[in-house]
């Protein structure tokens, strides 16, 4: 059976088609259930720090790790310094 389409092009089915408040309720219930079951992951401060570092590298570019400490000298010649 084909999905029925709304005039705006989105499907009538699935989590993304739900009301945002209903999505929050379902996600909240899932998180609470995972904690009660003991299967929810809780980040330590070291894990959170590492995740933030990796996110920064991905969003700002891996080649820019030392740019904050570098000076603004230009090297336009082909000979290495």
From TrEMBL:
Pfam families referenced in this protein's UniProt entry, alphabetically: KGG
InterPro entries: Stress-induced_KGG_rpt
Region (Disordered): 1-81
Low complexity bias (residue ranges): 59-81
Polar residues bias locations: 1-13
Protein name: KGG domain-containing protein
């Amino acid at each position: 059976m084909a999905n029925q389409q709304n005039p705006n092009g989105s499907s009538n089915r699935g989590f993304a088609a739900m009301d945002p408040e209903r999505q929050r309720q379902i996600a909240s219930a899932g998180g609470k259930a995972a904690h009660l079951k003991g299967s929810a992951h809780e980040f330590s401060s070291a894990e959170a720090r590492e995740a933030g570092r990796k996110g920064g590298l991905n969003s700002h570019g891996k080649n820019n790790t030392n740019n904050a400490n570098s000076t603004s000298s230009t090297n336009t010649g082909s000979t290495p310094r």
